[in-house]
Amino acid sequence: MYPSLQLIRKDFILVRKFLLLLIPYYIWMAFMNDGTFIFASLPPMLLLINSCTLDVQHMNQRFLISLPICRQQLVASKYISMLPFALLGFGITVIMYMAGLSLGHPSVPHFWKEIGLVTAVFPLLGAFYLPLFFWLGQKGAQIVNIIFMLIAILGSSLSAKLLEWFPFLSEWAVDLSSNQTVLYMIGGLAYLCILFGSYLISLRIFIRKDL
Amino acid sequence: MNEVIQFNQVCKSYDRFELKDLTFSIKEGYITGLIGPNGAGKTTLIQMLMGMIFAERGEIRIFGRPNSPDDPGFKDRIGYVSDENYFYDHLTIKQMKRMIAPFFSGWDEEVCRKYLELFRLSPDKKIKDLSKGMKMKFSLAIALSHGAELLIMDEPTAGLDPVFRRELLDLLSGHILDEKKSILFSTHNTTDLDRIADYIVFLNEGKLVFNEMKESLPEKYLLVKGGKELLDRDTRGWFTGIRETAHGFEGLVSNRTEGERYFKDIALCETPTLEEIMYFTVKGNTIHA
């Protein structure tokens, strides 16, 4: 198994208990079923913050450095781990939504598109969070964590309100027609550039950092 | 004789501490003890070896290759024991072990189980519930479970009870029977070194005092005890460190042959213990009791 995958496995071992805590959260979401897909990015963000916090809590980065892996793989694994975290958030939200549907809750026609967009917000948040995490380490982790949790919570609520206040945003999200392909390609490219730029910044910070 | 670790003019500075131009090597197939007072640079040195901190100048080679952060393969051949718990303490021993095992190519589950049993460590116990000594034992079990050719240990005997301390030293002596294996461990306890070390690396204030075979130290150093009237400006210069009391003095001479020639008939000349060598070297010749 590749070291980066082993590191992601390590993250899942670390956040296993936290995953259990998410069950009541999702049950509550399914019960409410009121635009709850908006919250698809919150649990993955919490998982990322949790795994990062555990890495610096008791100088655990020293443990990671003592393993036969290079620092680049440590940084890369944090970025790659956003994918399974996002998929987890996405998957569970879909399951809960389906469960809600089967229980007779009304269906939202553009659900898939909106949930897709909201899920994509999480790596974007992570792209801003991770360089700060690698830069500040244990010292500033708590403040950064609180700020990003607030962003994830308030951002999700705000997105829901924005869609409510400005229906054209929702229509825009739904209307993914072919004439907007170029726009979406540029958007996608910018998205990837932000992620890659963030990775390079994190790498530059962490590669020569004394732990 | 192969050198398993080489430091070549390694420098590292902090606000109030500096490692200055360290150049020495650790021999393959031996137990090397790293000694020095608190703040001498032992942990810094070990952390540099493990790639946790970086040297500002100079080069460190392990197994003949530079310990580059881009080439961490050498860590597959190293068993590292830290002086503080760096494992995830909310995990159990079993979970931690499961997390670590896939990273090492030579991981031997059976060996690990054997050491956990030997050290009486319950796999279901959480790391945070272990005592300091138990954490050290766990760290040691992990370090010994992947066929490491080089054990690097930072204060491994700290926090251990005398019985296990002795058992650990026996275990390390047994480990070294394979002549391809080497051990580097730092300690304050010179008794541990007297018991098992082949070589002693002595650091003080970030500088190398000596890197010698333990057996050769008595041939180099001399402890002189005598009356104060023997001390004048010239004779004081011969001493690495002097301790003066109301009744006389005792001092360490680093050139045994010269010391014996002068003091043999007029003072009491003894072979110093490792602790005495360390004490007088650190304190210099400014001590008055």
Labels describing this entry:
heterodimer; A: 211 residues; mainly alpha; B: alpha/beta; 6-stranded mixed β-sheet; 5-stranded mixed β-sheet; 10 helices; 15 strands; ABC_Transporter_VariousFunc (chain B); ATP binding (chain B)
Describe the 3D structure:
The complex is a heterodimer of chains A (211) and B (289). Chain A has 9 helices and no strands. Chain A is mainly α and 211 residues long. Chain A has one domain (3-207). With 289 residues, chain B is of the alpha/beta class. In chain B, the strands form 3 sheets. A 6-stranded mixed beta sheet of chain B has the order 6-7-8-3-9-10, with helices on both faces. In chain B, strands 14-11-13-12-15 form a 5-stranded mixed beta sheet, sandwiched between helices. The A-B interface holds A 1, 3, 6, 9-10, 13-14, 17, 54, 58-60, 62-63, 65-72, 207-208, 210-211 and B 47, 50-54, 69-76, 80, 82, 84-91, 95, 98-100, 102-105. Chain B: This is ABC transporter ATP-binding protein. Chain B: Keywords: ATP-binding, Nucleotide-binding, Transport.
Q: Strand percentage of chain B, roughly? A: 25-35%
Low-confidence stretches of chain B: none
Q: Sheet with the most strands of chain B?
A: 6 strands, mixed
Backbone structural class of chain A = mainly alpha
Indicate the overall shape of chain B. elongated
Biggest interchain interface, per-side counts = A-B, 26 and 32 residues
Organism (chain A): Paenibacillus albidus
Keywords (chain A): Membrane, Transmembrane, Transmembrane helix
Protein name (chain A): ABC-2 transporter permease
GO molecular function (chain B): ATP binding; ATP hydrolysis activity
